[in-house]
Design a protein that fits this description.
Layout (H helix, E strand, L loop, with lengths): L7 H25 L4 H28 L5 H30 L3 H11 L1 H10 L5 H9 L3 H24 L11
Length: about 180
Amino acid sequence: MTNERPSLMNAAGWMALPVGAMWSLSFLCAMYGIGQPLLSLLGQALAIVSIFMLNRQLTNYRRLFPAVSWLHIMQLSLVTCLLAGLLTDVAQYAYFLWLDGGRMLSFLSEAFQSEAYRESLKKLMPEADLAEVQKMIQGMSVRDIMSQLVIYNVMIALPVSLLAALPVRKSKEPKN
């Protein structure tokens, strides 16, 4: 068995599988947890635990290959998060294409009927016409929703990769 370091993409690809699976499960828990707070809480816990899991993977990688720099660990973490985001995008697309059936949009439509929600939106966006916003949301296609989620997943990759990579230190050398 050689102790040759794998390429950045190869290592990140293997690390991204469990992280992306946890993010996908977190997304599904969030979607089905709209009426069930415990399921929604489980989704949030999965997302947080995935950061610790990625940190553990990076720590183990650095333990196996102690000569790598922290910058390499940060690059590995970022590429892993981007690949995990791609895996999550696939799960989100499959959800909206086959499982959702308009559930999310109908929930948002119901939320627009709530007076408290409408007043909160008025405070956040005083210049917006709420009827126009509601019409825009109801007219969203799977492609529109996915374009927003892809951008969100890419934007969230950097802070998550930083959170996972910052605590990774070089392993301590045994003293003679």
